Amino acid sequence: MKICQLCTVDFTLYHFLLPLMHRLRDEGHDVAGVCAAGPLAQAVADNGFTVHDIPLHRSANPLRNRRAYTALCDLFRAEAYDMVHVHTPVAGFVGRAAAARTGVPRVVYTAHGFFFHEHMPPVRRASHISLEWLAGRVTHTLFTQSEEDAATARRLGLCRTGDIMAIGNGSDPGVFRPAAGGDAGNDGQVRAKLRTALGTPEARVVIVMIGRLVAEKGYVELCEAMRSVNAELWVVGERLESDHADGVESLIDAVAMDPDWADRIRFLGYRDDVPDLLRAADIFTLPSHREGMPRSVIEAMLTGLPVVATNIRGVREELVHGTTGLLVPVRDSAALATALNQLVADSDERARMGAEGLARARALYDESHVLDRQIDHLALRRTGG
């Protein structure tokens, strides 16, 4: 079968869709990626996949993607895909419209968290729901990551066939593992070397946050909370070219100029050693305003870290409050500080929650199981020989 995996930016294609593309190819399918060009598109191509450059814009205004729609129609006609699998809201809408226009036989949409959410202004939320509903008229299968999103999709009728399934999310437990797993001595050396390189004493409690540098990730609340948390914060991530700054860049400048903040908050930028950074930390936090089913939380749990995160869709499915970590209200820096301080002050509780989270992540969030669910549901396993 000839399959197109379509998303808006190359960051998504490389970091989130590449394992699925490999798995589909292993099952004997001809798989190509489609996204707006960027440096990571070449990394996908280096894995032996064709990657088509389409000028998609991360904008809620469909008119900004008229050129992309035309280009997708031309591509779909030329390539004659048997299946177009779209991801993320913008590519999800434009891609499904183009697939319908060109008669693609099978259209699959994975909602990595709906753009609309309960904290959005009602009129704006209704407009995004309307767009999802319209695109759902040409959708054969709708995957969500969380069960809560799947229930919402069924209630709102976001797939005309009613074929809606929560597939979960996952990561590789062979890559993300606690310092006590595998070669414990080597992992311990990595922790010590990283802390030395960053100038962080071994005895200091380290909180780590991984995410794009946009306001909806909760950076404002997190930095405010850190004023009263006796620990060091490592922030791992960068702002994509397609992201809106949303005041985060000015926040970074403010942190650098404030001695009280600068001593305890480190913005590390994009890193390719995230598994090692997690093993060198003690607590993971994600105070986002909205998420799908964040893989960063799963990766932290697989590393044996307790998690402090906001009580939002997806996260509250991954994290068991009081058992694998702590949930706090959205945009509440005081509650966030209280939860972080609770874990900073109690190494035994950190160890207990980390062990519970590790067991839960290994049982529920192994990436191979998520891939299996998609392959089986779409009947894409290799047959014969």
What is the secondary structure topology, with strand pairs?
Blueprint lengths: L1 E8 H17 L3 E7 L2 H7 L4 E4 L12 H14 L3 E5 L1 H14 L3 E6 L10 H15 L4 E4 L2 H10 L7 E3 L17 H15 L7 E5 L8 H7 L6 E5 L11 H10 L1 H4 L2 E5 L4 H6 L3 E4 L8 H8 L4 E4 L4 H4 L6 E4 L4 H12 L2 H18 L2 H11 L8
Parallel strand pairs: 1-2, 1-4, 2-3, 4-5, 5-6, 6-7, 8-9, 8-11, 9-10, 11-12, 12-13
State the CATH architecture of the largest domain: 3-Layer(aba) Sandwich
Q: Which regions have little confidence, pLDDT < 50, spanning 5+ residues? A: 181-185
CATH class of the largest domain: Alpha Beta
User: How does the overall form come out from the CA principal axes?
Assistant: globular
Helix content: 40-55%
* Number of domains as seen in the coordinates: 2
The beta-strand count equals 13
Keywords for this entry:
385 residues; alpha/beta; Rossmann fold; 17% strand
Description:
The structure is a single chain. Helix 12 (295-302) links the parallel strand 11 and strand 12 (307-310). The chain is an alpha/beta fold and 385 residues long. A seven-stranded parallel sheet has the order 3-2-1-4-5-6-7, sandwiched between helices. Strands 10-9-8-11-12-13 form a six-stranded parallel sheet, with helices on both faces. The protein has two domains: 2-170 and 367-377, Rossmann fold, CATH 3.40.50.2000; 184-364, Rossmann fold (3-Layer(aba) Sandwich), CATH 3.40.50. The chain is built from 16 helices and 13 strands. The protein is globular, with a radius of gyration of 21 Å. Helix 3 crosses helix 4, helix 4 (89-102) runs parallel beside helix 5 (122-136) and helix 12 packs across helix 15 (347-364).
